[in-house]
Amino acid sequence: MHRRLPAKTYCTLLLMGLLCTALPSVDVSAKNPRAEKSQSEQSGSRTKNQALTASEAAARAKARHGGKVLKVSSTGKGYRVKLLTDAGRVVTVTVAD
To answer: Which end of the chain has the smaller Cβ count within 10 Å, N or C?
Structure first.
């Protein structure tokens, strides 16, 4: 025999459904000032004066080894990136500046 759900559950589900349909859709093509990058940043080319950032080091390590970035720490010559690989191993990669 089927058990009947309480009225509170039905009201909650109905309210969630109405909220989801009533929310305005997000225009992903809208301009986001933080998302806009200069041409040199988009191409990945840096001049000698620009230092490697922690997020760039993490992106390089992740692109090369895959997995999930756990920690990024600065060293004198670049960054040390700790990754959790898809195989479940933790590896540490050094990304030079």
So the answer is: N
